[in-house]
Amino acid sequence: MKKSASERLFDYGNIIFMMLLSVGTLYPLIYVLIASFSDPGFISQYRGLLLYPQGITLDAYKLVFMNPNITNAYGNTLFYVFVGTTFNIIMTSLGAYALSRRGVMWTSAIMFFIVFTMFFDGGLIPMYILVGNLGLLDTRWALIIPGAVSAFNLIIMRTAFQAVPYSLEESARIDGANDWTIMFRIVLPLSLPVMAVMVLFYGVSHWNSWFPAMIYLQDRTLLPLQLVLREILITNNTDSMLTAISSGDKAPIGETVKYATIIVSTVPILLLYPFLQKYFVKGVMIGAIKE
Amino acid sequence: MPDLQQQTSSGTIVKKDFPKESFRHRVIRDFKVNKMIYLMLLPVVVYYLIFHYGPMYGLQIAFKDYAPTKGFWGSSWVGLTHFQDFFNSFFFWRLLKNTLLLSLYSMLFFFPAGIILALLLNELTSNRFKRLVQTITYMPHFVSLVVIVGIMFDFLSVNGLINNLLSSVFGIEPIPFMREAGWFRSLYIGSDIWQNIGWSSIIFLAAISNIDTSLYEAARMDGAGRWKQNLYITLPGIMPTIVILLILFIGKFMTVGVEKILLMYNPITYETADVIQTFVYRKGILEANFSYSAAVGLFNAIISLTLLVIANGIARRTGESKLW
Fold first, then answer.
1. How far is CA A213 from CA A76, A138, A219, in A?
2. What CATH number belongs to A59-289?
3. Smallest CA–CA separation between A38 and chain B, in Å?
4. Does B56 touch chain A (CB under 8 A)?
C-alpha cells in the first residue's frame, strides 16, 4: 500500500520519538555505569553528560566488595530472594492448582475470600502488631511469611492451570493418578512459561523490597541490600558506604562508590529479565483481565 | 441420595434427573471426593486467615485505646474518638488533598502515557525496532525504587547532572529540586512515567493485538487513513481494557506509592508530599501511636473501597466493561 506524504512524515516522527524515548530511558542507567568506572577525582569536578569512562578504574568496585555492610546485606538479600521465592512458589502453586480444579464445591467462595483482600485490608498498623504478636519481629521470617501469596500472582497462575487441557487430567486419573501426581507431572510441566514469570515477579519483588525490612528489622546483620542502599543513596550515611578508608579520602570517591553500589545491586536483575521478556505479555494480560 | 448420582473419576458430578441431594450430603461428599484438593488449599487459606483477615480483625484497635501490654481484649473502647481527632486535626485536609491530587495527576498524566505509547508502538513498521524499544522501555520497571530515588537525588541535587545542564545550556540558577515542595508532584509523576511507561503499555499492546484485523481491512477499503483507523477501531477496541484498568487505578487511589514517597520526601516537602499512608507510617510505626494511626488507615481503606465501588458502578452504567 502506498503511503501519503503525511503518513511517511508521521512514521519518521514516530521513529525519532521512539529513539529519544529509548535514549532517555537508558541514559540515566548508562551514566551511572560509566561514572562507576571513572576516576573519582574527575567525576567530582566534571559537569555535563558522560559518554565514556574517564580514567578507567575499579577502585569504587573494590571498596564496594570490601565493605562488610554491603557484602553481608548482599548475602541476606540472596537468602530472602531464594528462600522467599521458593516459599512463594510452593504456596501459590498449591492454591492455584486447587482453585483451578473443576467440580470442587468451595472454590469460588475461597476465590472471593482471597480476591477480596486485594481491595480491602487491615492496613499497615494491624499488620505490624500482628507480626509482633507472632514473634516474627527482628527475624528473617518477617520478610518471608507475611507476603507468602500475592493474590494477583495466584490469579495469573490459576488461569494458566485452567488452560491445561482437561482430557490430559482425565486420562491420568483413569491410570490411577491422584492430584499430587497430576499437579507435578502434568499441570506444572505444561505451565513452565507462566512459572518462569512467577519466579521473576516474586524474585524481583524480594530483591527490590526494602519497606518491610525497615519496619520489621532492627538487627543490622539481617538487613537486605536495598536498605543499606537506602542509607548510602538517600540518607547519605557515608559510614555504611566507606568503612575501609580513612575519612580524608571519602569525599571524591564517595560519588563513584554510590554508582558502583547501584550497578552491583541492579545488574543481576537486568541481566535476568530479557530472557523472560517474551512471557510477560501473557502473564500481565491474564492477571489484569481475569480478576 | 448420593448413590443415585454418578461421579466421574475426576470428582465432577454428572447431574441426572434424580431427587435433589441435601446440602449437608453434598458438602460431605464433596469433601470426601476432593480431600486432597482441600488439603492443598489448607496452607493458603490459613495464610489468608492469619495475614489478611487477622489484620482486619486487628482493626478493632481503631475504636480502642490499644496498649501493647493490655492486648486487644484488655484495651478499652473509645468509639470514634480517634476518627474525630483525625478529622479535626490540622493535617486532615492537607493529607486528603495531597493524596487525591497526586493520584489525580497520575491518572491524568501517567495513565494515558501507557496508552499513547502502545498506540505509537503499534504504528511502527519494523518489528525488530519495536521489540528493541519494548525491551528498553520495560527495563526500568525492574529497577528498585531505592535505586531510582537514589539516582533522582544524585541527578537533581544542586550540583547534580540536571542542574549542571540547565545552567550551562540555559544559564538557569541551580534549583534544589528535591527540597522544594513545588517540584514534588512533577518529579514523582515524571519519574513514574520514566520507570513504568513501557510496562503499562504491555497490556494495551496485548489488547490491540486482539483486535480483529478484518476491521482494519474494511476501514482501509472505505478510505480511512491511519489516524481514523486508530480513532474508530483501535481505541474502541481497547476501550474495555482501558476501563478495567482505570477502575483498578481508581481502586488504588488512596494507596498511591507510599514507598516511593517515603523515599522521596523530607519535612521540607511534606506540604505537598505527605499523604495519608505516609502519615500512618509516621504516627504508627515511628511514634507508636497505634490506635490513632490504625483509625487513619481504616478511614483510608474505606475511602479506597468506596471509590472502587463508585468507579465500577459508573462503568456498569455506561455499558463499558466492569470489574464485577
1. 11, 9, 10
2. 1.10.3720.10
3. 15
4. yes
Residues of B in contact with A274 (CB under 8 A): 135
Give me the residue from A4, A29, A280 closest to B202, CB to CB.
A280
Residue B182 and residue B57 in one domain: no
> What ipTM did this prediction achieve?
0.90
Stated length of chain A: 291
Q: Could you tell me if B9 and B95 lie in one domain?
A: no
Q: Tens-digit pLDDT profile for chain B (324 aa)?
A: 344 444 444 455 555 555 677 889 988 998 888 999 999 999 999 999 999 999 999 999 999 989 888 877 788 889 899 999 999 999 999 999 999 999 999 999 999 999 999 999 999 989 999 999 998 999 999 999 999 999 999 999 888 889 988 988 888 888 999 999 999 999 999 999 999 999 999 889 988 988 888 999 999 898 888 888 999 999 999 998 899 889 889 988 888 889 999 999 999 999 999 999 999 999 999 999 999 999 999 999 999 999 999 988 988 887 767 777
By C-alpha distance, which of A108, A88, A82, A212 is closest to A154?
Answer: A88
Domain extent, residue B199, equals: 83-317
> A64: which residues sit within 8 A by CB, 6+ positions away?
A70, A257, A260, A261, A264
Least CB–CB distance from B139: residue in A15, A114, A270? A270
d(CA B6, CA A109): 24
The answer to whether residues B264 and B117 belong to one domain is yes
Q: pTM, whole model, 2 decimals?
A: 0.89
In this structure, are B14 and B94 located in the same domain? Answer: no
Domain boundary among B36, B64, B92: B64
Determine contact: B304 vs chain A, CB below 8 A: yes
